[in-house]
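Reopening this ticket.

The earlier resolution said the output was attached, but the attachment link was broken on my side. Pasting everything inline this time so it's all in one place.
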Amino acid sequence: MKATNFDLFNQITLYALVKLFDEFPKPIQVNAKSIALEAVPKDEDESYDSAWDLMDFGVNTLSWLESEGFISIESKVYGGDFIGVRLTLKGLSLLGYSMPGLPPSEALIEQAKTALKEASKDSAKEILTKLFTGALMKAGDFL
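Inline output:
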């Protein structure tokens, strides 16, 4: 069965967030095309064109994470390289991290890492649903 855009988004997003969490607070260089290829299990019937589409999808996914404030990017270079990428406080909060002195929240980062190991579209979707639902509820607390 062909993956939907949301399946791809879920897998790439989860992979990128875990990678950035593991490197935090260090800003890192990320190739969004490589992130997409690493995040999505290779399909035996995958065509050359679909691989290129997937790499572009990686660039679009990281750009969306930046525009929504989950990650910061110092600069973007032709070819899908993003320089100085790291999680923002909003991105850390999304993963269940609490600043010292604040009430602890459920640490979803471990669930995200487990979902990536399982390489399951359903697991990635389930974890991202929890992450974004929690983020929206937290945002509602500030309104």
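Reporter confirms the inline version is readable. The beta strands are 28-31, 71-72, 75-77, 81-87. The first helix runs from residue 5 to 23.
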